[in-house]
Design a protein that fits this description.
The chain is of the alpha/beta class. The longest helix has 29 residues. A five-stranded parallel β-sheet has the order 3-2-1-4-5, covered by helices on one side. The protein has a four-stranded antiparallel β-sheet with strand order 10-11-9-12, with helices on one face. It contains 13 helices and twelve strands. α3 runs parallel beside α4 and α6 packs across α10.
């Protein structure tokens, strides 16, 4: 099998995770990387992910079979002129931005429609940068492809297969359809989460009691508010029409909810909560999506010396890597006091089996 060469312009969380997933799924692959962060490039070389690094978009990329644009959304548009000068004839050009209409417009203006397949791996993390990237980030995540009408079908299929080999789930959509869908299930939730956190900050007492007791449900639904402020600023500006339209509908839904509360409409309140519960439960077990599911469990743990060490040892003996572990002192919406987060779903499932067999009460957190 001939060597596959993939270029990355931008090697942050998503670019780094794709590069690692490609290396994990293909032993005969060469990766060329450019990023303004020299520390990220040095680490990528040290880890054996980047085979060649460069300080600019130069002729090194003229050898690529695939070229991934992984810089921030607006920077990807600006990089197209430099990319056009070095892009080889048969190369597939793609990006990873969460807004697709604007990059397609920029690609058309640059005359690169013949080779462009928009991409959006619907995975992420509150942590940013190459240092936090990992191949597992793409595992079972939807990876949306938005090919132009000019790209040959065989190239689309070739890219779809590459995505599938990385462990992601390829899904082909039109650019405008993608932007509306992601505005609803990714962009709007980030706006809501940030608004909720800001509301609590502005409503809290001088003693910070709200912040002190915030736990359970509040921390779960606002987790994504810890994401990159710069990235979400750009997303809101580039997908503003879809986000604004859906935000208006959401504001109306909140107004209707408020009316039901003010009018003591018990039937209306029950219906709203019950409909949400039923619909939410219909996708609670799905591990793919733009707001990446946390593979977490809660464990009832006795307040005695060595209890925590015993649980950690049980998991370590089975080579189950723990992403995060914390003791909850507030039992609101919690079935247990010890929260353990895993990197992968299969590790979580195995962890549940081990701890249950050892006599612990374990609860999967959705």
């Amino acid at each position: 099998m001939s060597q596959l060469t993939c270029g990355f312009i931008g090697l942050g969380l998503i670019g780094g995770s794709i590069a690692k997933a490609l290396k994990a799924s293909n032993t005969n692959i060469k990766i060329i990387a450019y990023d303004i962060n020299q520390e990220a490039l040095a680490l990528a070389q040290k880890e054996g992910i980047a085979d060649v690094t460069t300080e600019r978009i130069d002729a090194n990329f003229s050898l690529c079979d695939y070229l991934f644009l992984c810089a921030p959304v607006q920077k990807n548009d600006q990089n197209l002129e430099a990319v056009k000068k070095v892009l080889p004839k048969d190369c597939i050009l793609t990006d990873v931005g969460s807004v697709k209409t604007t990059i397609h417009e920029a690609v058309a203006q640059a005359g690169l429609e013949h080779c462009f397949i928009g991409g959006h791996p619907m995975a992420g993390s509150e942590r940013v940068g190459y240092v936090n990237s990992k191949a597992e980030l793409l595992e079972n995540a939807y990876y949306i492809l938005t090919p132009t009408a000019s790209v040959p079908a065989d190239k689309v299929e070739r890219f779809r297969q590459l995505v599938d080999n990385m462990g992601a789930i390829p899904l082909i959509l039109e650019p405008d359809q993608h932007d509306y869908v992601t505005a609803a299930i990714s962009h709007l939730p980030h706006v809501v989460a940030a608004s909720l956190v800001n509301l609590i900050e502005n409503s809290d007492s001088d003693e910070g009691i709200m912040r002190m007791v915030a736990a359970g449900g509040f921390k779960d639904i606002t987790r994504i508010a810890s994401s990159s402020a710069v990235m979400w600023q750009q997303i809101c500006l580039t997908n503003r029409k879809n986000i604004s339209s859906l935000l208006s509908r959401y504001i109306q839904a909140l107004t209707d909810f408020q009316s039901a509360i003010d009018n003591q409409d018990s039937d209306g309140l029950y219906q709203r909560f019950d409909n949400a519960r039923i619909y939410r439960d219909s996708f609670a077990n799905a591990s793919s999506g733009p707001i990446k599911r946390s593979f977490s469990i809660s464990v009832d743990i006795a307040d005695r010396a060595g209890a925590l060490a015993h649980i950690v040892t049980l998991l370590a003996e089975q080579n189950l890597s723990i992403k995060n572990i914390a003791i909850s002192h507030n039992r609101e919406s919690e079935d247990g006091v010890l929260r353990i987060e895993f990197y992968q779903e299969n590790s979580m499932i195995r962890g549940v089996e081990l701890l249950t067999e050892a006599g612990y009460n374990v609860h999967i957190r959705y």
